[in-house]
Amino acid sequence: MAPxxxxxxxxxxxxxxxxxxxxxxxxxxxAVWGVWTPVLGGLYLNQPTGMGFTGTQTAQIYAxxxxxxxxxxxxxxxxxxxxxxxxxxLAAVNCLGAGLLFLMARVAPxxxxxxxxxxxxxxxxxxxxxxxxxxxxFHHLPRPALQFGGVRLWGTVxxxxxxxxxxxxxxxxxxxxxxxxxxxxxxxxxxxxxxCLNWAGALSLVYAVYCxxxxxxxxxxxxxxxxxFLSALELFRERSFAVLVGVSVVVATELQFxxxxxxxxxxxxxxxxxxxTQLMTIGQVVxxxxxxxxxxxxxxxxxxxxxxxxxxxxxxRYGIFAxxxxxxxxxxxxxxxxxxxxxxxxxxxxxxxxxAPTDIKASAQGLILLxxxxxxxxxxxxxxxxxxxxxxxxxxxQALTNWTGVFLVPVGVTLVGAAAFLLLxxxxxxxxxxxxxxGPRPDVLPARKEIVPA
Length: 454
What we know:
The chain is mainly α. It is built from 18 helices and two strands.
């Protein structure tokens, strides 16, 4: 028997240390977003005793994220490609972002334009950081195709942990009190929910300092062309890719119904704001399990079925939300959000990687993200707010929302998207993984993929 090759323990230790550093980066990256995005709209901005904004105004504030997702990465990419080391840029924008979050927390109720402009500037600064953290990790990981998923997973963990912690803080430790038989505290006021901005600001400051310890990632020697993604437009000659992009825009118009008003819906069912915050993490927990099962599901059933199941999972979830009862079924249906995110978004990225030629893979992935988190999410902001306002009436000084009417809209949207996808999308035999075991197509190589968070 030939002797086994010795294990380079120094290299293994160094590799593990690098992955740990990048994992902490991802934890902070998504913890900052996770503490405010699920609760700010429904439990603070759109509350009469909070900021007092209408559903339409609240949706416009969230729309700044979609607009920033479309335009800001082009500018940020040029900055880090030409002048700034990536880790220093991340430190600078997180420091500035912390200041803007603290300012937003101090905006007086009813001052819509002041809050809107602060949020718009914040998003323009910080929206590109999700892509930049991924590119930094890809730059330094020795085997990114194998290692990035494990590193990125800590972003979802950060989102879950901070949401659970903030929810428990809102409840004044009610869960811990219950374990010791102590009396439950009074429900948190919407103004207390607004402290999520101060939490996010504090996390941003810690994150900014931590970014300075990340591996040095200097500007590229040959800066990338900011309009390189236009080359991916040639993929529209592939009918199924065009169908995927079009359906992605349509389906993504459901996103803001959940992200803006999901937490408010749970309080309408009788949950306190802290518990509602914690319930919003169920989708992220299931997302982790979904991503682990995704490779097997794609091999067994193919990309078309995977993406279709992802879309229909949203349809079922919103249908249960529209029913609004029993409460345990509504809570359980939260898990379908994680299933839908993993199968639809990551499934779409997998298909794009298969059909895109090697030299435009990154641009093609950017086009998918632009369609979903950019265009689709922006359209969603223009729809979700007015729909919520339409189905809301004021009685005896209380705003009452017909949630059945609100959630039937995304039920219809996702059904149309699923039907169009099933009718128009064709998965060629050479795209099915089980039929490509003999070897990859010469123009299709493994690509580094970024997993989109929920």
